[in-house]
Amino acid sequence: MTRYRLHNRHAASECAAAFAAWRGFASPLRHSVAASSCAGGGHELWFDVEADSAMAALALLPGFVAVRTTAIPIHDTPIP
To answer: In terms of pTM, does the model score above 0.85?
Structure first.
């Protein structure tokens, strides 16, 4: 499995809908904690997940959120 950082960007006007989209959506991410800049006005969310593909990673998100999200493969890199 590959680790992905899911980076969601949404407009301020879409913030409430981005959070409401989780209601009734079955996902292991539901009721978890995500990094977010919404409270500071940035309107971005980040999740780190493991999945077999970028498509599988995005499937962990409700459709409204997934279409505004980029799945970025990530790895730990030692910094000298």
So the answer is: yes
The span from the CA of 62 to the CA of 60, in Å, is: 7
27 token code pair: 């996902």
Residue 16, by phi and psi: left (phi above 0), alpha (psi -120 to 50) or beta?
Answer: alpha
Give mean pLDDT, residues 43-70: 97
1: closest CA among 63, 48, 46? 48
With CA atoms as reference, report the closest residue to 29 among 2, 14, 50: 50
Contact call for residues 49 and 6 (beta carbons, < 8 A): yes
**Alpha-carbon gap, residue 40 to 38, rounded angstroms:** 5
